[in-house]
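TA notes, week 10

Several of you asked for a full example with nothing omitted. So below is the full record: structure tokens for the whole chain, then the designed sequence directly under it. When grading your own attempts, check the secondary structure regions first.
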């Protein structure tokens, strides 16, 4: 193996999102690939991407990806459903030699595998649901699948406030949003926003035990492991490496919510301009 190939094996995985939601993907990557180093960029100065035009989201995604690429990453993970829907193809074309993963295709693939009836639910932000990206991706894996989608915008704020299980308001809102998925209408539900795994327990309780929940972060981590193994880019060194975190604004809030999402004290992080 050449010295360049050896250096690439030790290079980090780059992950970006408009804010903190993508940290659930980081958590999944850490669990599935414990030897890898991760560099995370939260574009907190310009969140949320979900309210922006496609052209603006694509421009932001190019800027964030370019920042990560400058840090010599070996893989790019778009840990944002909106950016995945709008900019995945553009970023793959920009970096043809680097594996580039969005959250939509892996989540859709896993949902189709899990569903026995072909009736699949998707919850996400208004932008993600209105884009139809999950429905299209699911149809690509199973053209006969029936997809029911529901926007759940308030789930983002509930997750960031830490109101996962103990607030009556969370259960009340979940009951209202998730009504289309109860009573056997679907057997699989895609958590189509990276914030939503924080609310996994209350979502599972509302839809019932017969509905399989698909965490797109876990699906991405599994896909990343497969791609890195296939390209012989898995980090083999057992020497510990420290993850790095960057934000574009609101560092104090980022630290608070990041530690909630990761379930641990935040390691290195700093504020940057894109």
């Amino acid at each position: 193996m050449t010295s360049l190939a050896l250096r690439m094996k030790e290079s980090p995985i780059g992950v970006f999102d408009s804010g903190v939601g993508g940290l659930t993907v980081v958590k999944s990557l850490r669990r599935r690939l414990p030897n890898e180093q991760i560099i995370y960029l939260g574009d907190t100065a310009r969140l949320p991407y979900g309210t922006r035009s496609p052209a603006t989201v694509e421009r932001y995604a190019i800027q964030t990806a370019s920042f990560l690429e400058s840090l010599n990453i070996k893989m790019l993970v778009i840990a944002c459903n909106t950016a995945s829907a709008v900019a995945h193809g553009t970023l793959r074309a920009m970096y043809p030699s680097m594996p580039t993963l969005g959250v939509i295709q892996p989540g859709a693939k896993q949902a189709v595998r899990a569903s026995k009836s072909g009736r699949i639910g998707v919850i996400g932000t208004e932008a993600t649901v209105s884009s139809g990206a999950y429905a299209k991706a699911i149809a690509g894996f199973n053209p006969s699948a029936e997809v029911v989608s529901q926007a759940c915008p308030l789930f983002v704020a509930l997750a960031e406030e830490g109101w996962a299980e103990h607030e009556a308001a969370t259960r009340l809102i979940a009951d209202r949003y998730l009504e289309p998925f109860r009573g056997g209408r679907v057997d699989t539900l895609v958590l189509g926003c990276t914030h939503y795994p924080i609310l996994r327990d209350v979502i599972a309780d509302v839809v019932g035990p017969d509905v399989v929940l698909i965490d797109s972060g876990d699906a991405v981590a599994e896909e990343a492991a497969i791609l890195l193994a296939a390209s012989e880019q898995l980090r083999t060194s057992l020497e510990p490496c420290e993850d790095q975190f960057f934000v574009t604004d609101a560092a104090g809030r980022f630290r608070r919510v990041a530690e909630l999402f990761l379930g641990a004290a935040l390691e290195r992080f700093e504020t940057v301009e894109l």
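Strands lie at 13-17, 38-42, 75-78, 100-101, 119-124, 146-151, 188-191, 212-215, 244-247, 268-271. Use that as a sanity check on your answer.
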